[in-house]
Amino acid sequence: MKRRLLLLIPLAIFAILAVFLYQGLSLNPSARDSALLAREFPAFQLSTLEDPDATVDESLLTGQVTLVNVWGEWCPTCKQEMPQLLELAERGVRLVGVDYKDTRAKGQAFLEEFGNPFELNVFDPEGSLGFDLGVYGAPETFLVDAEGIIRYHHTGYITPEDVERTILPEVKKWRSE
């Protein structure tokens, strides 16, 4: 009898592991909450992409709701996302870009080719601001309220559906509070 019970132990372990693995298949690997939600946007002091002599800091994100988009010329999905960002800008959403791990020339050429929806672009060639934001890669987008607090984080490409279902409702929510 004990011998039969011992034979069932590997089967029970397998069944438990199978349940956990099955649950894992339903998870979205790119969906993750930022550890910075409900916290102030990280402090930084960097030049702008447009003017190497102009320095900006986190204070540029106070006063109004702002969508901060981390992008790079090297990022293929950033190119796919640009029409949605241009639409958001046309609809009155304030956008600030973070040109992440790029060169100034390549970043400027990217914006000339695909359009520039950004009020301003922070130039982050070393990725220091991206690191402080916990960015895994580009694109990533953060919604910052008028007090400079991160309220929403979108990992990856913003689809046309995301604009209507998520981004615009989040912007409206934080504008009205």
Automatic annotation (TrEMBL):
Cross-referenced NCBIfam families: dsbE
InterPro entries, per database record: Periplasmic_diS_OxRdtase_DsbE, Redoxin, Thioredoxin-like_sf, Thioredoxin_CS, Thioredoxin_domain, Thioredoxin_ResA/DsbE_sf
Transmembrane regions listed in the UniProt entry: none
GO terms, molecular function: disulfide oxidoreductase activity
Main location: membrane
Location within or outside the cell: Cell inner membrane
GO cellular component terms listed in the entry, alphabetical order: outer membrane-bounded periplasmic space; plasma membrane
Organism listed in the record: Modicisalibacter xianhensis
Pfam families: Redoxin
Entry protein name: Cytochrome c biogenesis protein CcmG/thiol:disulfide interchange protein DsbE
